[in-house]
Amino acid sequence: MGEANSIPTMKDVAREAGVALGTVSKVMNGIPVGESYRKRVEEAVAKLNYRVNSYAKGLKTNKTYTVAVMVPNLVSPFFSRLVNCLNRALSARKYRMLLFATDYDPAQEQEYVILAEQQKVDGIICLSYNPELKVSDNVPLVSIDRYFGAQIPCVSSDNYGGGRLAAEKLVENGCRSLAFLRIGSRLTNEPNKRKDGFISACESLDIPYTLKIVDDGTPYAAFEDFLREHLRPEGGLDFDGIFCVTDALAYQIIRSLRSMGVRVPEDVQIIGFDGTRAFGDQDLICSTVVQPVPEIAETCVDLILEKALSKAPSLICLPVTYACGGTTRS
Amino acid sequence: MGEANSIPTMKDVAREAGVALGTVSKVMNGIPVGESYRKRVEEAVAKLNYRVNSYAKGLKTNKTYTVAVMVPNLVSPFFSRLVNCLNRALSARKYRMLLFATDYDPAQEQEYVILAEQQKVDGIICLSYNPELKVSDNVPLVSIDRYFGAQIPCVSSDNYGGGRLAAEKLVENGCRSLAFLRIGSRLTNEPNKRKDGFISACESLDIPYTLKIVDDGTPYAAFEDFLREHLRPEGGLDFDGIFCVTDALAYQIIRSLRSMGVRVPEDVQIIGFDGTRAFGDQDLICSTVVQPVPEIAETCVDLILEKALSKAPSLICLPVTYACGGTTRS
DNA sequence: TTGTATGCGTTATCAT
DNA sequence: ATGATAACGCATACAA
User: Fold this and answer.
1) CA–CA distances in Å: residue A182 to residues A210, A215, B104, B233
2) Rounded to whole angstroms, how far apart are CA atoms A138 and A117?
3) CA distance linking residue A124 with residue A118, whole number of Å
4) Global confidence as pTM
5) Which nucleotides of strand C lie within 7 A of protein CB?
6) A50 to chain B: which residues are within 8 Å by CB?
7) Which label site among A149, A302, B96, B319 has the fewest CB atoms less than 10 Å from its CB?
8) What's the domain count of chain B?
9) Which domain holds residue A278?
């Protein structure tokens, strides 16, 4: 009795195989044992359908092969692509992913960090909107898109370079006057540098530009008002190129413009940011600055599994690329 | 020494508070203890920044408050919406999510199930493409969209009803001849019933219909060929309404038709399936049969946490709704 | 090379 | 109500 319908343990395997407990442990961990022993153990494992208990193992070894990932949500294409790549990167290294969606709520973020700490994860990868997130310093942390300080590595796209690239591409395609549109968090984060790069390029190219920047939560109508103000009676707008801070915003702007009778890209060319594709893998939504999401994911995972996290660089910017999605001339 | 920089345990808390180990355990689990004791323990916990070790706890209690979720990927909008809702549903019940993306690979699916079993999860929720998936019967399993047998509850949309609904809506909107387009797995699964419902409605309404059904992996060009075959010299197609098995397919079909000069919805009306929105939360891609994803997620989580999974219904179909996304007249 | 014994951090069963 | 102690399943140092 006792072995009937309950989950088998190492002890059961040892008894079944007629060997000692330690021998079973060695076999399960790939430590050399006599060939005949190994075989008997393997047979017993198969017969009993035995699985090592990661909880008992983790308790002993202080290693859980689990990494927590924390993002605002999974429906935004950038986040879902990111989590998808992180998941692949972790799986490839035999790690498991514990996933938390925070809905941009700082309180929830803090709560999930505590949960992850309890879970004794081997590390936390987060894209956080809580500037004062508290994390015990005995659990490795890597941040995406937000710089927390020198001790915590931050991985992001080269947002500044991406902003420059967008302006340059618009000008290359014949634009003579540009606009930058942004909606986003007021918190300082890496994506805010898209604007700085854009302005920098405009100034070195000596191209006039307009900015329309609003805080998260502002109704979209603010942008429609802005566009209408710049509509010209003879058709077109006061500018012939627009850089939108994300593809999601670009998508809305394009809709608005078309409904106003402005042609894209004939009257105005538009570049977004992210590299979003319809249904994740079909065509681009718009011309865009593509974030290197697979590389971001790989970098985060490499960092978090690194022993010497403390002497890792505090900011790693990965190169972006430009892709034409039909809302620019090329 | 030993307590200096290492992670505090219950023993440390007990010593700090000057109480017994068991007392600390009781406080951490909300079991009544004397008021003065509780206070001293709480102070010690705060001072040491103590967190219970879920691994040790899980080892004792055989309960991990963790559920494994397995889906093909996170970039497909339906999957990412599903995982997003599952995550919310689990969080709300204080459960954690272990996430596995299988990339439609049966071997990986089997491997992840084993990982989940080792992890002693309290249950597995999966959307599987492995018809012979083996799961120990001591871990609760709930399936989405694939019927594994009477012992394993399967949750899905009312795909049959959705197929009927699509046909009915097209006819309501004036269509007199319909087509059904599908690409998908040859494995029997619930979404295959969309076709059956569609046909059933066409027949009861006495409306002629055409089917174009291809296996996963077939190049999309097969559909373009099909459309071209049915192009009429005088404009339009041999049919004036199309039901596509997913929004993703509908999106491609709409593009193809427009490039062929066929107007949507003037010449032909189109309905997809899923309820996909641009960027997860913006406008619909097309007119569509909306899957009740939040309800599917809630149902799965309720089932998996249920004690008596064995006497749960073996198939639960949740009601779908129709939404106009501009590719039908209404 | 194989077996034995101890302890990881917690809960739960006991006496007290 | 509180304190001591034995498990939980495993890895490992040590003995054989």
Assistant:
1) 11, 8, 38, 47
2) 9
3) 12
4) 0.96
5) 1-5, 7-13
6) none
7) A149
8) 3
9) 159-291
Is A282–B251 a contact, with Cβ atoms under 8 angstroms apart?
A: yes
* DSSP string covering A253-314: HHHHHHHTT--TTTT-EEEEEE--BGGGTS-BSSSEEEP-HHHHHHHHHHHHH-S-GGGS-S
SS3 A163: helix
Residue type at A154?
C
A14, part of any domain = yes
User: A267: how many CB neighbours lie within 10 A of its CB?
Assistant: 14
pLDDT score, position B227: 98
Q: Is the CB of A37 under 7 A from strand C?
A: yes
Q: Say whether the CB atom of B21 is under 7 angstroms from strand D.
A: yes
Distance in angstroms (rounded) separating the CA atoms of residues A175 and A239: 8
**Contact present, A249 and A181 (Cβ < 8 Å):** yes
Q: Quick one: average pLDDT of A211-217?
A: 96
- Per residue in B176-189, pLDDT tens? 999 999 999 989 99
Rounded Cα–Cα distance for residues A124 and A53 (Å): 23
Give the tens place of pLDDT for each residue, B300-314.
Answer: 999 999 877 778 899
User: CB–CB of A299/A158 below 8 Å?
Assistant: no
Q: Which amino acid is at A236?
A: G
Residues of B in contact with A285 (CB under 8 A): 278
* In a domain? residue B5: no
Q: What span, in angstroms and rounded, lies between the C-alpha atoms of A287 and A276?
A: 10
B276 three-class SS: coil
Alpha carbons A128 and A107: distance in angstroms, whole number: 11
Q: Point out which residues pair with B97 in neighbouring strands.
A: A99, B67
CB contacts < 8 A, A to B, total 141
Tokens 């940011």 locate to A273
Residue A185 belongs to domain with CATH number: 3.40.50.2300
Spatial separation of the C-alpha atoms in residues B159 and B180, rounded to whole Å? 14
